[in-house]
Amino acid sequence: MLTKEERSKFYKTRAWSQVRLKVLSRDNYECQQCKRDGLTYTNKHDTDKHKRLDVDHIKDLEHYPELGLEIDNLITLCVRHHNQKHNRFTKKIPKWTDERW
Ligand SMILES: [Zn+2]
């Protein structure tokens, strides 16, 4: 598992910026989730689409650091879908509710 510091270091590496560009061009600089939803993302955001796109780890970097540079584990998402995905994962039911007597 990677700490926050290790992850921010990872995102500054040259290897990451190269893989990131590969993923963006593989996905034609389009959010893959918008595509799935049938939205024409590029028409809406075409002035600054590059700034609005993130490359996301399907299996998150925190728990799967060995897949950090694996192109098949990476997907282009717009900022909106990227945030949506991460909000979903942080909404976990706290463990302590199970510990009733
Ligand atoms: Zn999207």
From TrEMBL:
Residues 18-83 form the HNH nuclease domain. One of its GO terms (cellular component) is cytosol. GO terms for molecular function: endonuclease activity; hydrolase activity; nucleic acid binding; zinc ion binding. Keywords: Hydrolase, Nuclease. PANTHER family: HNH NUCLEASE YAJD-RELATED (PTHR41286:SF1). Belongs to the HNH nuclease family. This is Putative HNH nuclease YajD. It comes from Brochothrix thermosphacta. The lineage of its organism: Bacteria, Bacillati, Bacillota, Bacilli, Bacillales.
